[in-house]
């Protein structure tokens, strides 16, 4: 009897991305049209990703260090921006966060196991359940090609995120304040499509898909 392959739960994978990307942008421009200042509109939009991340931590009942890092970085950037009364710093803080994420990913290459191994396992679990995640991650111990592929993809994402950070900071200080969220979101979508497209093509070719 042929085993039925579990159906991938793509909603569980894509929903957080849409929430973190689209919701803050919509909130920012709606509030700006209503007369709210840049600081207030930006802070209001930032609440959504923080609440979603905090909810995921409580729901899963385990420490997700990436989620903890994201919340901490958002908090530090926001406090610094408010202390200095700098809307541009608040808009640029996402660039600092993506830089730290990129450097973190590159750092995991030196630590032995790339961050993509943990992320991939989480995606495999979201799509196929805990057993599917364990089967996928176990390949790290037995397949040199699998290890090489995850290291390469992690390196590409790390460099890409650092590049994104530089672009975000430049945009935050070079363009009119109201244009910054829309432009940075657009450039992130383009970069994300390129990075994700590379990852998917390379993963399919080398049988790395989670």
What does this protein look like?
The structure is a single chain. By secondary structure, the chain is mostly helical. It has helices at residues 10-33, 38-60, 65-84, 87-111, 115-128, 130-138, 144-174, 180-205. The longest helix has 31 residues, at 144-174. It has 8 helices and no strands. Residues 1-10 have low confidence and may be disordered.
Average pLDDT, rounded to a whole number, is: 80
Question: How many E strands?
Answer: 0
- Based on secondary structure, the structural category is mainly alpha
Biggest sheet descriptor: none
The low-pLDDT segments are: 1-10
Q: Tell me what portion of residues adopts beta-strand conformation.
A: under 5%
Shape, principal axes of CA atoms: elongated
Gap from first CA to last CA: 24 Å
Structural Rg: 19 Å
SS field, number of helical segments: 8
Secondary-structure element string = HHHHHHHH
Percent helix, as a range, is over 70%
